[in-house]
């Protein structure tokens, strides 16, 4: 079997997950296509060095390509705090059931990139903390902190405003 055939068999089944990550990080279909194309070329070039599972390996390449693209095209998005937050339970599951999907997508897209990345990899791509840490090149504690912060920010974004008008019932 040729290297190309091995690449197609091992890596191409994970292109949808790779695109999903690129789409969430860039927040734009066209930009995600560009980043994914660059990432796939890198993946093909470095495929002979693959050791281990292809999915986390490919997602790490896509993640790095996204961060490089964001740094070159939207550096202001990368200037966000990465401090720890509360241990609130995952509101994304609750939000998916109780809120309009468009509002949820908009709230996720509005998260700062490090938090959006962690949330997408964990909740949408179902990766372990260890896999996310390896992909993002950060300690597991940082992954946990980013997820907690992402979940808190998401819950705040989806919480009905306290300033919302209240209905008054007249007798």
What does this structure look like?
By secondary structure, the protein is mainly α. The protein has two domains: 3-78, Rna Polymerase Sigma Factor, Chain: A; 91-158, Winged helix-like DNA-binding domain superfamily/Winged helix DNA-binding domain (Arc Repressor Mutant, subunit A, Orthogonal Bundle). 67% of the residues lie in helices and 0% in strands. The protein has helices at 3-10, 15-26, 29-46, 54-73, 91-98, 101-110, 113-124, 129-136, 140-158. Helix 3 (29-46) crosses helix 4 (54-73). The longest helix has 20 residues, at 54-73. It is globular.
CATH architecture label of the largest domain: Orthogonal Bundle
Helix content: 55-70%
Shape: globular
Number of helices: 9
Task: Determine the mean pLDDT.
Answer: 83
Please compute the radius of gyration using only Cα atoms.
18 Å
CATH class of the largest domain: Mainly Alpha
Task: Tell me the count of domains.
Answer: 2
**Class by alpha and beta content:** mainly alpha
